[in-house]
Design a protein that fits this description.
The protein is of the alpha+beta class. Helices cover 36% and strands 20% of the residues. Strand 3 (68-70) and strand 4 (75-80) form a beta hairpin. Helix 7 (164-176) runs parallel beside helix 9 (200-207) and helix 7 packs across helix 10.
Length: 231
């Protein structure tokens, strides 16, 4: 999978070009996350597109007036036809005091800093307008090839910051038929009790992204303490 190209579908690629010609006039803009992962895995049509940029997120409204801004996180969200678009300024995060949101956010200028806040290596892949895939962890492409879910950085830190990532790891494992890397799984089990700190609507939101069969399996695994889950 070295030297990969992310070939978006026609409409999605047109949207990327539009953002590149507008927001991208002021700096760099990359597609990032699940859209790249799912495109490389050939999972069908993708309608959620996340972009990361070194530009000021506020510039988005100059080109997309209906965008909703979230200043605390440097994010702008809007729709183009049936596509959900999110554009976020590069940032680093720290001090997760409510087990979900960082209390300290600092905007930065480099992709190499931005990727460190992301959850899993397979979700920390970026693509430029040419489709060239950038793998700042040097693990994401191989993990995608080998069907592995692995945290970016220290898994204990990732799950203690945001225990909803435990549920996301289970959802991705079931949807993609991937294996959870050993240290990531150990950290999931160690931090499992923090699940109770997640707001019920956020937990439901994450679980409801998958099929009924997977929902039942996620709840079974959580209730069993991940006892029979192996890396």
């Amino acid at each position: 999978m070295a030297g990969l190209t992310c070939n978006l579908s026609g409409k999605a690629q047109i949207i990327f070009r539009k953002l590149h010609k507008t927001i991208g006039k002021h700096g760099q803009i990359y597609l990032v996350g699940g859209a790249i992962r799912d495109t490389l895995l050939k999972r069908g049509d993708i309608h959620d597109l996340d972009f990361a940029t070194d530009c000021n997120y506020k510039s988005v409204v100059n080109y997309f007036p209906k965008a909703v801004l979230f200043p605390r996180f440097g994010t702008a969200s809007f729709k183009i036809e049936d596509y959900n678009i999110t554009v976020s300024s590069f940032r680093v995060e720290s001090l997760y005091e409510d087990f979900r949101h960082p209390s300290m956010v600092m905007f930065v200028r480099s992709l190499e800093e931005d990727y460190q806040r992301r959850d899993f290596t397979i979700n920390a892949l970026y693509a430029d307008i040419s489709g060239k895939v950038i793998d700042p962890t040097n693990l994401g492409i191989n993990d995608l090839k080998n069907k592995i879910i692995r945290c970016v950085g220290d898994p204990q830190e990732k799950f203690s910051e945001d225990p909803l990532r435990i549920v996301r790891a289970l959802r991705l494992k079931l949807e993609l038929n991937f294996t959870i890397e050993e240290n990531t799984l150990l950290a999931m089990k160690y931090n499992l009790s923090l699940i109770r700190e997640i707001r019920p609507f956020k937990l439901a939101e994450e679980i409801n992204k998958t099929s009924d069969k997977n929902k039942q399996e996620i709840m079974r695994l959580l209730n069993s303490g991940l006892f029979d889950l192996e890396s």
